[in-house]
Amino acid sequence: QAKMSRAVQARRLEGIDKNIWVEFVKLAATYSKVNLGQGFPDFPPPDFLKEAFVRALSGEDQMLHQYTRAFGHPPLVKVLAQFFGKLLGRELDPLTNVMVTVGAYQALFCCFQAFVEEGDEVIIIEPFFDCYESMVRMAGGTPVFVPLRLKAPEAGSLMSSADWQLDPAELASKFSSQTKAIVLNSPNNPLGKVM
Question: What GO biological process terms are annotated to this protein in UniProt (predicted)?
Answer without folding.
Answer: kynurenine metabolic process
